[in-house]
């Protein structure tokens, strides 16, 4: 974080899917494919991923971009339905594959998983363990993230 | 990052969104428009076809979405082919799906057919009669098919996945963004293979290795590849190589478009596809060996199964396999050999005797699905050899097994020997 360290920092992003959430950041060292990369309970199982074994469920997942299979959409929608999805997604690049998972879950289940696009620099500030609150309006309007390091 | 909503819809599209063409069309348009707004698209673009992969069962959400569309009366308005499902409907004994997947996977496949989609059940639709014209806009899902239709056929699709694919088929349009736009189809990166020996590039195993390296270096960026041989009119050899390359690059990275200079339709010359500020990376035989080794996780030479046909085996791949099998011994009884393909290709392979050659050697042929997305392999199988970089990438996590990536000839020799046999001459 910039400044002295403990002060909350407000970041402005671009909403990719609306919603509000509050939680702890899990910053991924590498992009993750939900399909083939995450099991039904939200645990990372991708043998190539450095954070294998870590759970994404209920976390604010921060990553550069999605990766790999287009079936990640369905896996994300199913994680939302079953209650094992991340609380929010922060991305540096817009990833339509993940946005659609959130849009479909909203249509069928009335859920609202916020997905926010942040700049590379802002994303890099969000370390694992940072507490964050997010409010994202309808895409592509702004989204606000308030981050507070522990 | 300002969030201006730049999207402008036509009167027809507004009418679809407003529900004047029925609730299913309206729901599909909400998804298309939702993605368009996230992407910052200024308009939508009509599509000529779609390829949908939502027919593979990933859980209740996908089934409830698709059955909702059916109950709302949805029908696709452009040609929409279907990717693999969770079941082999022609050879039901081969898949050992649990009761939920057997029941819901079948319902999901049926629901897609009820929407008017063509049940080709293949991840290689481009080798089962669905080949969009160069320059046409399409909405394709399945990462290998996306890479192929963009790169090898020169049609234009962005990376679509479950739900948006069928929504695009129903709405007949997609956001005019991403790889639909010419400006996003230029190369940000050049990989130069001119220092790699021609003999290595003539080996089939080089191509998934090239794909793995491309995926690792390019991520989601468009790359141009120089110094590679090929001719898309050579009877399928180059096409199958680029299929293996693209499938692996789309697994190891997010590659949705690559240009092979002098080979693929948008890249007659490097200058024509070079984006601003593109950097060049020289590739060596050592780089390819390293990429190939990373797709092999097995530490021993013991072998339990061989899996071929990811993406689905083409007719020319069947011909090459039949040549390898001719006059040779059968597969070792301890090694299960599977070839995954489409119904359409299987019918041709039956007519030419290739399918019987596989069965006579002791192999099994699977259609409509694939050995790494649904339970086909016996319990207790630990090490599987494959000629597919995509299979080698995903199977360890999906199936909990170790993999060995090899050439088609190495796969056949290993299946016969009952242990992993490598041909080190390839790499000298």
Secondary-structure element series of chain B: HHEEHEHEHHEEHHEHEEHEHEHHEEHEH
Highest CATH level, the class of the largest domain in chain B: Alpha Beta
Number of strands of chain A: 7
Contiguous helical run count of chain B:
15
Give a count of the beta strands of chain B, DSSP E runs of length 2 or more. Answer: 14
Q: Compute the gyration radius of chain B: what is it?
A: 22 Å
Question: Which protein chains make the most extensive interface, counting residues with beta carbons within 8 Å of the other chain's beta carbons?
Answer: A-B, 53 and 51 residues
Strand/helix succession of chain A: EEEHEHEHEE
Low-confidence runs of chain B (pLDDT<50, min 5 residues)? Answer: none
Fraction in helix of chain B: 25-40%
Which overall shape of chain A is indicated by the principal axes computed on the Cα atoms?
A: globular
Name the overall outline of chain B. globular
Q: What is the CATH homologous superfamily assignment of chain A?
A: Phosphohistidine domain
Number of domains of chain B: 3
Please give the order of strands in the largest beta sheet of chain B. 12-11-10-13-14
Q: Could you report the average pLDDT of chain A, rounded to the nearest whole number? A: 91
The structure class of chain B reads: alpha/beta
**Strand order, largest beta sheet of chain A:** 1-5-4-3-2-6-7
Question: How would you concisely characterize the structure shown here?
Answer:
Chain A: One of its GO terms (molecular function) is lyase activity. Chain A: Keywords: Lyase. The complex is a heterodimer of chains A (150) and B (428). Chain A is of the alpha/beta class and 150 residues long.
């Amino acid at each position: 974080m910039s400044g002295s360290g403990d002060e909350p920092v407000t970041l402005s992003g671009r909403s990719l899917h609306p919603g509000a959430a509050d939680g702890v950041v899990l910053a991924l060292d590498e992009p993750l494919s939900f399909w083939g990369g995450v099991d039904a309970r939200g645990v990372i199982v991708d043998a190539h991923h450095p954070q294998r074994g870590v759970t994404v469920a209920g976390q604010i997942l921060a990553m550069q971009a999605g990766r790999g299979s287009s079936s990640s959409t369905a896996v994300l929608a199913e994680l939302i339905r079953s209650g094992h999805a991340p609380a929010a997604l922060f991305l540096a690049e817009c990833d339509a594959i993940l946005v659609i998972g959130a849009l479909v879950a909203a249509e069928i289940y009335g859920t609202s998983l916020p997905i926010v696009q942040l700049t590379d620099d802002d994303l890099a500030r969000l370390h694992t363990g940072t507490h964050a609150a997010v409010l994202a309006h309808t895409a592509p309007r702004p989204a606000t993230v308030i981050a507070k390091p522990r | 990052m300002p969030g201006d909503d730049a999207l402008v819809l036509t009167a027809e599209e507004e009418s679809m969104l407003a529900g004047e063409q029925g609730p299913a069309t309206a729901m599909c348009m909400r998804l298309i428009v939702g993605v368009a707004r996230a992407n910052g698209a200024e308009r939508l673009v009509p599509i000529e076809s779609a390829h949908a992969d939502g027919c593979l069962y990933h859980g209740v959400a996908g089934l409830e979405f698709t059955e909702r569309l059916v109950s709302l009366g949805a029908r696709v308005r452009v040609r929409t082919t279907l990717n693999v499902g969770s079941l082999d409907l022609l050879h039901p004994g081969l898949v050992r799906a649990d009761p939920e997947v057997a029941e819901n996977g079948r319902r999901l496949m049926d629901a897609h057919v009820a929407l008017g989609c063509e049940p080709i059940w293949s991840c290689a639709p481009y080798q089962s009669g669905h080949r969009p014209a160069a320059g046409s806009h399409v909405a394709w899902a399945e990462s290998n098919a996306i890479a192929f239709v963009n790169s090898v056929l020169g049609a234009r699709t962005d990376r679509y996945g479950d739900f948006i694919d069928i929504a695009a088929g129903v709405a007949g349009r997609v956001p005019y963004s991403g790889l639909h736009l010419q400006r996003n189809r230029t190369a940000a990166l050049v990989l130069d293979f001119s220092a790699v020996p021609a003999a290595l590039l003539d080996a089939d195993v080089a191509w998934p290795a090239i794909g793995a390296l491309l995926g690792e270096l390019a991520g989601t960026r468009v790359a141009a590849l120089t110094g590679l041989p090929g001719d898309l009119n050579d009877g399928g050899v180059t096409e199958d190589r680029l299929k293996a390359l693209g499938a692996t690059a789309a697994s190891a990275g997010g590659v949705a478009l690559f240009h092979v200079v002098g080979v693929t339709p948008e890249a007659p010359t490097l200058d024509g596809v070079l984006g601003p500020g593109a950097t060049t990376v020289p590739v060596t035989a050592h780089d390819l060996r390293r990429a190939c080794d990373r797709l092999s996780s097995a530490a021993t030479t013991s072998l339990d199964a061989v899996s071929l046909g990811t993406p689905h085996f083409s007719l020319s791949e069947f011909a090459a396999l039949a040549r390898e099998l001719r006059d040779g011994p059968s597969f070792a009884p301890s090694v299960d050999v599977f070839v995954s393909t489409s119904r359409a290709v299987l019918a041709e392979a039956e007519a030419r005797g290739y399918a019987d050659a596989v069965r006579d050697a002791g192999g099994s042929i699977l259609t409509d699905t694939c050995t790494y997305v649904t339970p086909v392999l016996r319990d207790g199988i630990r090490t599987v050899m494959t000629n597919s970089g995509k299979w080698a990438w995903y199977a360890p996590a999906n199936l909990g097994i170790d993999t060995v990536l090899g050439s088609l000839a190495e796969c056949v020799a290993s299946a016969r020997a009952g242990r992993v046999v490598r041909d080190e001459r390839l790499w000298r």
